[in-house]
Amino acid sequence: MARTRTVFAGSLVAVVALVALVVGVVTGRATGTTSASGGGPGGAATGKKVDVIIKASDSSFWQAMLAGAQQAGADFGVEVHMFGPTSETNIDEQVQLVENSISRGVQGIVIASNSSTALNSVIGRARGDRIKVVTVDSRVTAESEGFIGTDNVKAGAQAGRRMCDLLKAKGRTSGAVLVESSVAGIQSLVDRDRGFRQGVAEGCPGVDASLQRFNNNDINTATAQVNDALTANRELLGVFADNNTSGVGAARAIKDNNAIETVPVVAFDSDPQENAALAEGAIDALVVQNPYFFGYQGVVAAAMASVGRVPPRDMDPGAVVADKANMNQPEIKSLLEPPTAKAGK
User: Fold this and answer.
1) Any idea what the CATH number is for the domain that residue 278 is in?
2) pTM tops 0.85
3) SS3 108
4) 19-50 tens-digit pLDDT
5) What angle do CA 136, 142, 146 make, to 5 degrees?
6) 321 - beta bridge partners?
């Protein structure tokens, strides 16, 4: 199976130290010594059961996270099962999936929560049953063993700065930009949108990014909303799409309106449709995360916690900006086209 290149936010020294910690603990070695009492099968975490619950099973972004989780299970002898609701709006289904994990008596749960608060009660019940819970992508306000995800304010600022650069190149730095968002109230998206506005304001103070629409994570709705915005405001400067669904919808609308050359689009994440839009110019830049890392390190962290070790409290692999010029470079291509796996295994 192909591996993605891990892009870290921290220094190389910190990364090396972290890798040593993770390998030493999960395989049963005594951290800080040269003892090798286990490795892979036979290590302290071998046979531990970890359930991975993603936000939506119909998204290649989350399928990349599952591929990382699956590989971590194979590497460290952890029994990994993977689940997800059909849509990011199905919070009740996520709650039920956590309930199911509690009933099966797993030792760890890795969850990308669709709500910052709605899963607090069930997460609390899981931890009350001594199940270790690691959250990824979106933080929850309940206690957990750790969090793995992108600093979305920083990543959003990357998107905002790129949008500003694109607008300057066109000589259009006064007017409105549409923020096309997936779901209202999701903290990762709130942070992403806030960071975008900060990034735009740094270099393009004349750009108004207050116009915002929510598409309920539906591509057709996103397409219609961007179409409406372009029709209502013929001087619309650009579109920021804060997830892959929004990005695909924005790209479709830009093509429908023959606006590829005039209205830049900066979007988040990657999937085959977004990548195709990037190649043809309907999307000018993608801020790409590393969901494979989320899944891999999520399983590692849950396994660590399940054997009484303390995983890192926060891990951020960072984000990179992909465009037509760099998208075929190996380190970028591996993030745009990560391996994927399906839920329900």
Assistant:
1) 3.40.50.2300
2) no
3) strand
4) 434 443 333 322 222 222 234 454 889 999 99
5) 40
6) 287
